[in-house]
Amino acid sequence: AQAWFERIAAQLRAHMRETLALGIERDQRIRAVIAGMIYGDRAGFEEGLVEAFRKTGTMHLFAVSGQNVGVIAMAGIVVLRVLGFNRWRWGWLVVPVLGLYTLAAGAQASAVRAFEMAAMVLLAWFMDRPVSAGQLLAGAAALMVLAEPAQIFDVGFQLSFSVVLALVVLTPPIYSKMALVGAPDAFLPRRLWPAWLGAVERARRMAVGTVAASVAAYLGSAPLTAWYFHIFSPVSVLV
Asked: Which pLDDT score, from 0 to 100, does residue 207 have?
């Protein structure tokens, strides 16, 4: 059964490679960037391209992670809801799809972490239990280390978990501090706001949330990046 599942994953990877190249067969660089962002395939990367992303601290764009797995999980859940499936069935149907995608993406540490966290969220829904980001992260790390203890020394494993831990722990306090900048008068009742202010405030908070998450992710990755790659690039927050 495992060999069959791995064979299906290999076929899916080949299909993704062929489909993403349609219409851009002659542009090797664009094909490599798209493949790297969608399923983590960096085989077509030339050294100059790798170095450019490494210097700007944006190599994480090509690591299959929670964003990739989350998009697939949400798409599957939406389809199942439209088809009328009960919530307790979602995990049994979505988890195998996520596992297939994780294998097709090369089972990177970040992808395995995201898959395990998504699977635990679906299991918590099935058991009607609360979900804690910290517990999910710790559970995923424990499972990966139990399966392969040597992973704890892998740079990808360390970066993946340090960045997510920083996002969980540091983003809320950074956001709460930054949200005060440019905020409307706290003593002005919301019902007295002009019509345009609501839209501006939503856009401002969205921008603040993005910056806060970027700063948190940078703080989580900067020490390891400096230690392993001897690179210190604050510009990665803006990039």
From this structure: 92
Per-residue burial over 169-186, b = 16 or more CB atoms within 10 Å of its CB, e = otherwise: ebbeebbeebeeeeeeee
Residue 111: what residue type? A
Give SS3 for 34: helix
Calculate helix-pair angle for 155-178, 133-147, nearest 10 degrees: 170
User: How many CA atoms lie less than 13 Å away from 150 in the CB half-sphere?
Assistant: 0
How do residues 106-151 score in pLDDT, each as one tens digit? 888 888 888 888 888 888 877 778 888 888 888 888 888 888 888 8
The contacts of residue 57 (CB under 8 Å, 6+ apart) are: 218, 221, 222, 225, 231, 233, 235, 236, 239
Q: Which residues contact 32 (CB under 8 A, 6 or more apart)?
A: 41, 42, 43, 44, 45, 46, 49
Q: Which of 212, 186, 216 is nearest to 201 (CA)?
A: 186
Q: Using alpha carbons, select from 82, 86, 118 the residue that is nearest to residue 100.
A: 118
